[in-house]
Specification:
384 residues; Rhopdopsin 7-helix transmembrane proteins; 0% strand; AdipoR/HlyIII-related; metal-binding
């Protein structure tokens, strides 16, 4: 122990034996502790110094900066403005905000944990509040896409998630509820938050099945996030690897560092799945609008029969979404190309008619265009 304490002591750092009781958390971290500063400026300056909180500070500070940059890029996407529903953008934005706030609160705690006993306690409460907030943001964004076309069920889960998160936030910040007599209440409230996080998934799988729910809300990335975060929590709880080699990982490589890295990794995994789901719903919306607009134009120009497949697409899309299916009946290049050609030709004919009114309408030439769109034949229809 003496060998490990000697180096940090030269940099003004303390050993486990030298710090105050309120600074003690992990007995396997033997050195690298900052002195109690009682100064916000001094604590803030320690961000640029080497001690046993440096890696904890920078892992989530850089994580917050990364998510802020990704959030700005997401909302700066040109297609987002044109085609994305506001609700979808808000759902993804809530997740971005929750992760950023969580990482910033964590960074603040590790930065100012050396300030004083009061600040250490308050910072720890904010750190836990950030965990509650990111759980809420993750659950809200997931429930939004899981029950995309069932607003009643979605709103029930959103209310449940919000209510339990508020309850956990109150229990986290109110000193009264930290007393031993409220231990059972605290356990039940956090258990409710955890349950409300996964209950929509169980419900969704029971209704849609695994594959359809994964397509609708990114189930695999959600479970990936949960698995990675659980692994990080387990590493932190068991104090691995410093438990096996006390003093070796004082400055970097300790369990708390690994937990931060895993939390950041899990957040990125979920973000990837969430954005893919948002983009999939965006494509559905774009294709649905394309079908509706094509059908409208065909009807305007007198091709009501040709509009049927595109109108059918719209109804099938809504039905498919209700069943949790993202991939709908495709509009083929052949049908869309022919419809576009007919519309363009009709516009040209309208212009030419200004010069030559007797020009006949294109659709009086026969039913051949309809055959190309529908794939049916008047002959086979008559025969049946």
């Amino acid at each position: 122990m003496g060998k490990h304490a000697q180096g940090p002591a030269k940099r003004g750092l303390l050993s486990w034996a030298e710090i105050a009781p309120w600074q003690r958390d992990n007995e396997f971290i033997l050195t690298g502790y900052r002195r109690a500063s009682f100064s916000f400026i001094t604590s803030a300056r320690s961000i640029l110094e080497i001690h046993n909180e440096t890696a904890n500070i920078w892992s989530h500070l850089l994580g917050a900066a990364l998510f802020a940059a990704l959030c700005a890029r997401f909302f700066a996407n040109a297609e987002l403005t044109l085609h994305t529903k506001v609700q979808d953008a808000v759902a993804v934005g809530v997740y971005f905000m929750a992760v950023i706030v969580c990482f910033l609160l964590s960074t603040s705690f590790h930065t100012f944990s050396d300030h004083s006993p009061e600040m250490h306690k308050f910072g720890n409460e904010l750190d836990h509040l950030g965990i509650v907030f990111v759980m809420w943001g993750t659950g809200v964004s997931g429930a939004h896409f899981a029950f995309y076309c069932d607003a009643s069920i979605r709103n029930i889960y959103l209310a449940l998630l919000t209510g339990t998160a508020i309850g956990c936030g109150i229990l986290t910040l109110r000193p009264k509820f930290r007393q031993p007599g409220y231990r059972t209440m605290r356990f039940l409230m956090y258990a409710c938050l955890g349950t409300s996080l996964f209950l929509p998934l169980v419900h969704g799988v029971s209704i849609l099945g695994w594959e359809k729910l994964d397509a609708a809300m990114g189930l695999e990335s959600f479970l990936g996030l949960a698995t990675i975060n659980f692994s990080g929590s387990a590493v932190y709880a068991m104090r691995i690897p410093e438990r096996w080699f006390p003093g070796t990982f004082d400055l970097i490589g300790q369990s708390h560092n690994w937990m931060h890295v895993l939390v950041l990794t899990g957040a990125l995994v979920r973000l990837d799945g969430l954005i893919k789901v948002q983009m999939a719903w965006q494509v559905v919306g774009m294709e649905s609008n394309l079908g509706e607009r094509t059908a409208t134009l065909l009807c305007i120009f007198g091709y009501g029969g040709l509009a049927a497949p595109f109108n059918a697409r719209s109804s099938l899309s809504e039905d498919g979404v209700t069943k949790g299916t993202v991939a709908m009946m495709p509009i083929t290049a052949k049908s869309l190309g022919l419809a576009s050609a007919l519309i363009l030709l009709e516009v040209l004919l309208a212009i030419v008619k200004l010069l030559w009114p007797p020009l006949p309408r294109l659709h009086t030439f026969g039913r051949r265009p309809y055959l190309l769109l529908s794939g049916s034949s008047p002959l086979t229809s008559t025969a049946t």
